[in-house]
Every structure is written in C-alpha cells, then in structure tokens.
Design goal:
The complex is a heterotrimer of chains A (about 170), B (about 375) and C (about 60). Chain A is built from 3 helices and no strands. With about 170 residues, chain A is mostly helical. Chain A has one domain. In chain B, α4 crosses α6, α5 packs across α6 and α7 packs parallel to α10. Chain B contains 11 helices and 8 strands. Chain B starts with a helix and ends with a helix. Chain B has about 375 residues and is mostly helical. Classes of the chains: A mainly alpha (about 170), B mainly alpha (about 375), C mainly alpha (about 60). Chains A and B meet through α2 of A and β8, α4, α5, α6 and α7 of B.
Chain lengths: ~170, ~375, ~60
C-alpha cells in the first residue's frame, strides 16, 4: 500500500485529468454525437423502410382482396342479371302463351256465338218462310176447295164421318 | 503444423517437468548471484550512480521496475558501443516543475540520471524515477536508512512519457473517431475504412453495456463510456507494444479514471440513490442505521476497486510477461529459452485479451454504477 | 515482504481463485443448459469475477 502511495504522481494525475476531460468533451462534440446520431438515423431509416415495406405488403394484400371482392361481386351481379333475364324470358313466354290461349278461346267463343246467332236467325227466317209458304199454300188450297160446293160438302161430310167414327 | 491435443499436453508437461532441472542444475551460479545482489545493494546505498557491473537477474529486475514506472524521457533502447560508452536512443521530454516559480527545462539535462539538471540556479536530480531538489550540481541525493531519499520533492507537472503517450492516444482517438463521424455524412450513413471496425464496438457499448445497465437515461453517459473504453483499451494495447509504455498500469492514471466515474455517479445520482444509501427501504430501523455507513463506504469502495483492478491487472500482466521474457536470458539454453519464448508468446496473446477485457470491465462497471445512481425504484414493489 | 505477508497473499490468491473458478464453472453449466442465453451469462460472469478480482487485488496490495 505504501508503495502505491509513493508511486502516485500528482503531475501525472493532473495531466491525465485535464487530457481526459478535454478528450471527453472534444470527442463528444466532434465524434460521439455525430456518430451516434448517424447510427440512430440509419437505424430509424432501416426501421422506417421495414415498416413501409410491411405497409406496402399489407396494402397489396388489401388491394388483392379488394380485387377479388370486386370480381366476385361482378360475377354475382352477372349471375343475378342472367338469372333475371332468364326469368323475364320465361315469364314473357308464359304470358304470351296464356294470352294466346285466352285470345284463342275468346275468338272461338265469339265464333261459336256468332254461329249460334246466325243459326238462330236462319232458323227464324226458315220458320217464317215455312209458315208464310204453308199459309199461302193453305190459302190456295182453301180457295181451290171453296170454289165448288160439292167438293165442299163432300169434305164436310167426310170430316163429319171421321168425327163419328171417332 | 497440427498437434493433436494429447501430445501437445504431453510436450508441455515434459518441458515443465524438466524445468527444475535446468533451473537448479548449477546451484553455484545461483548462490553467487545472491551474493552479488547483496553486494550490489550495499553499493547501491553508498554510491548510487556508480557503474558497477550488475548481475543479470538484478538487471532484469531493475529493468522491469524501471519499465513499470513513469520516466522523463521517451526511451526506446540503449546499447553499448565498442568503446564501452552507453548510448540511449530516444528523445527527451520537457520537465515542468513548480519550485518558487515555474521551472521548465528539457529532461536531456539529466543525462539519464547521471547529472544534476540546472534551471534558474536550482539543481535537480533524478532518483528512482522521481525528481529531487539538490543544493548544487555535485551534491548527491541524501538517503535515510531505508534507502528512501530525504531531499525535497518539488511539485512536478512534467510532460512525462506517460503523459506523452496519453497525448498520442488522445490524438489518435480524436482523428480516428472524427474521421468516422465524417465518413457517415460522406457515404450516406455508412462507415468507411477503420470506422467499420470500430462502429460495431461503439454499438456494442451502447446496446450491451449502456442500455441494459443504465436504462432510458443512457444518452448522457454515452460520451464518457465510449471515451473511457477506447482510452483504456488503446492505452492497454500500447502498453503491450515493444514501446512498452505502461500508462494504465500507473496508479495515478487509474485513480483519475476511477475518480471521474465516482464524480459522475455522485453528481448525476437521483434522490432514490441517496435514499438507498442513508435510509435503506424495506429493513428495520436499527438495520437502517447500521447499513448507512456501510453503504456510504461502499460508494467509495466501488471506484477504489475500479482503480485497483485496472492497475493491478495491467501491472501483473506486465511483470509476468517481462519476467518470462527475462527468463529467456537467464536460462541461456535452447530448451528453457524456447519454452519461455512459447510461454511469453502465449501470455502476450492472453494480455491482448486482458487489455480489451479490462477496458470492457471498467466501462461495464462504470455503467453499472451510473445505472444504480439513475435507478428509479418503486418501493411498493420492492417490499413484495 | 515478511513471511506472514506472503502467506496472507497466498491465502488471498487461493480464495480469489476458488471464487472465480466457481463462478466460471457455474457459468459453464448455465451456458450448457441454456446456450441461447450465453451472452447474458457471460456478462454476469465477468462482472462477478471482476468484483472478486477487485477485492482480491485490494487485499493483495493491503498485505
């Protein structure tokens, strides 16, 4: 221990203190601060780059999924449209069918009615003609019959005969 | 060359088994060495600067202790030329003393401790790496019976080898990290060159030392933690180079670093920190009274252990490493010397690890103390 | 250095060595059990070892 104290040199201590403290401040100003700042900056840069790469990746993924979603939507829309079109087509066909049928039926009905009425008219006409004809015939016959008395009496007799028989 | 594990163990075990044989094979030299040492020690006390021939072991021992200490010139190596005069290669550093006014002169005036230096009519002499005042150019240092100098020590603010090395490391760090800071702006946020190596370390300190230990307030401590980590690490590594400047193995340096940690801990501490020291929540009142001084002492022991840990690790590493290198010259045979070379090599690798580890530990524990000072406890939760 | 100092230093080294060894061994066990937590375990181990080491060194210098 005494040897150590004897070895202790105040001058060396003094110079060491001045040199070392000076060195700390000089290096702090000219070396450590710029070095650490540069290193920090670089690390920040790397961190940011990594972060932005990660973000870009995420964005890409988002975009991709968006695209897929859009595509799926478009596909679904197309499908829906096609389905709708098909339905409309079927409906139109059906409608047309139904209408044609009703129209046809209606026409047949009308035709039938027309035929009936024509038939009735024709029948009535025929009846009238038949009746007038028969009247005129009867008139003519009567005229002929009543023109001679014998014949008339003969008929009356004959008719009376017939009644007696009955 | 590939060794399988077992033979390598076997070889090392054999070499270690042979070690005592080599060491004690010729005890005659050993005893003479001891004799010489005592003679040398006697000579030491009487005539310090005399150039008596030294025993190899003492020379190594002196070299190690000299290496561990600070010095006033930047000494690379010495050699003896043909005429026998010693030449020192290196360069002198300025000596700054406060002794009745500022005294500034070059350390070359000491002539490596052989002469007294003169400045404004005052004379100074080097003794065991310290400067002492002497009366005249011829006067020697007076020693007491323990071998300690009795002369006056002036206040010494010299730019010594360690201060010089700290300056160099500071400049290196400043250039290195300002360059790194600039390269971010130039290259769009990416480090270039040497910064590529240091940037992960900075991030490691931030993410694995500061944030887990301090929490969300870590930013204001970052400058200190980064500076102290790199400062200690670089100085530790420079200590391992052949220049061998043992800066962090110097108690004044580690004391200063530990003191800074203590000051920062104390001045940035929140109310809860002091609350835990003086009035520990969740314990009975008598225990609170007993715990307060212990906790208060703990706040001082913490930086003290920081200081001692760094100092002792580095010094121990240097001493062991240099002793093993010294063994190479003592053995002077192919088996022992090559073994100590291998050992020294392995130990150097270990020391490189320790250099980084100690810097890490110092930073880590500082962060831990800052974290304790910054913690906001939820006392209601603590009771459960 | 006197003999008691040396003996004391030896005791300190033995104690610190045992302590650090135990920490290291336990850390190895823990890593073997949970290899994914090895970083955290290493940090905790180093801190604990450093604390013991600090006390050991302090005692060594005091002796």
């Amino acid at each position: 221990m005494e040897k150590l104290i004897e070895q202790f040199s105040l001058g060396l201590f003094f110079w060491q203190f001045i040199l070392f403290v000076g060195l700390i401040f000089l290096l702090k100003k000219f070396a450590w601060k710029p070095i650490l700042d540069a290193v920090n900056e670089r690390e920040e840069g790397i961190k940011n780059a990594l972060l932005s790469a990660e973000n870009a990746k995420k964005e890409m993924q988002n975009l991709k999924s968006d695209n897929e979603k859009l595509l799926a939507e478009a596909r679904a829309e197309r499908d829906a449209m096609m389905k709708e079109a098909r339905e409309i087509k079927e409906k139109m066909i059906n409608d047309a069918k139904v209408e044609a049928q009703t129209q046809g039926e209606k026409m047949i009905e009308q035709a039938k009615a027309a035929i009936e009425s024509e038939k009735n008219a024709a029948m009535a006409d025929l009846k009238n003609q038949v009746s007038s004809l028969s009247l005129s015939i009867a008139e003519k016959i009567l005229k002929d019959e009543l023109s001679n008395k014998e014949a008339q009496t003969k008929i009356v007799e004959k008719m009376l005969d017939e009644v007696k028989l009955n | 060359m590939v060794f399988s594990k077992k033979p390598l163990h076997f070889i090392i075990a054999t070499l270690i088994a042979f070690l005592p044989l080599i060491n004690f094979a010729n005890p005659n030299t050993d005893t003479t060495a001891v004799e010489k040492q005592t003679v040398e020690a006697e000579a030491h006390t009487t005539e310090h600067n005399s150039e008596e021939p030294k025993d190899l072991k003492t020379e190594i021992k002196e070299f190690i202790s000299h290496h561990l200490l600070d010095s006033y010139d930047f000494h690379l190596y010495s050699y003896k030329d043909d005429s026998g005069t010693e030449n020192h290669i290196g360069f002198p550093l300025p000596v700054i003393l406060w002794d009745n006014g500022l005294q500034v002169f070059s350390s070359s005036k000491f002539h490596h401790g052989e002469h007294a230096a003169e400045s404004n009519g005052n004379f100074y002499r080097l003794f065991h790496g310290k400067i002492y005042k002497v009366g005249s150019a011829e006067e020697q240092i007076k020693l007491n019976e323990h071998g300690h100098a009795e002369n006056v020590k002036p206040f010494d603010f010299s730019l010594t080898k360690n201060v010089f090395m700290m300056l160099v490391v500071s400049i290196i760090m400043f250039l290195l990290f300002t360059n790194l800071a600039k390269s971010y702006a130039k290259n769009g946020g990416i480090a270039k060159g040497a910064g590529r190596f240091f940037e992960p370390i900075i991030l490691y300190i931030r993410d694995d030392i500061a944030i887990p230990n301090i929490g969300k307030n870590y930013k204001k401590y970052m400058s200190y933690l980064l500076t102290i980590f790199f400062f200690v690490w670089f100085l530790n590594l420079f200590g391992l180079t052949p220049l061998g400047v043992n800066v962090t193995g110097n108690i004044a340096v580690t004391a200063c670093l530990a003191l800074l940690t203590y000051l920062i801990t104390t001045f940035t501490a929140k109310k809860d920190y002091w609350g835990h020291i003086f009035w520990m929540p969740g314990v009975p009142v008598p225990m609170k009274i007993i715990l307060a001084p212990i906790e208060l002492l703990g706040t001082i022991i913490k930086p003290f252990s920081l200081m001692i840990r760094l100092y002792a690790n580095i010094v121990a590493g240097h001493v062991v490493l240099m002793s093993i290198i010294g063994l190479m010259f003592i053995f002077k045979n192919w088996l022992g010397s090559s073994l100590s070379f291998v050992l020294a090599f392995a130990l150097s690798l270990l020391e490189i690890l320790v250099a980084a580890l100690q810097a890490y530990i110092f930073t880590m524990l500082s962060a831990l103390y800052f974290g304790a000072a910054n913690e906001e406890h939820h006392h209601d939760d603590a009771h459960h | 250095m006197t003999i008691p100092n040396i003996v004391g230093a030896g005791l300190i080294v033995i104690g610190a060595g045992l302590g650090i060894g135990k920490i290291g061994g336990s850390a190895m066990d823990a890593i073997a059990r949970q290899p994914e937590a090895s970083g955290k375990i290493q940090t905790a181990m180093l801190i604990a070892a450093a604390l013991i080491e600090g006390i050991g060194f302090a005692a060594l210098f005091a002796s």
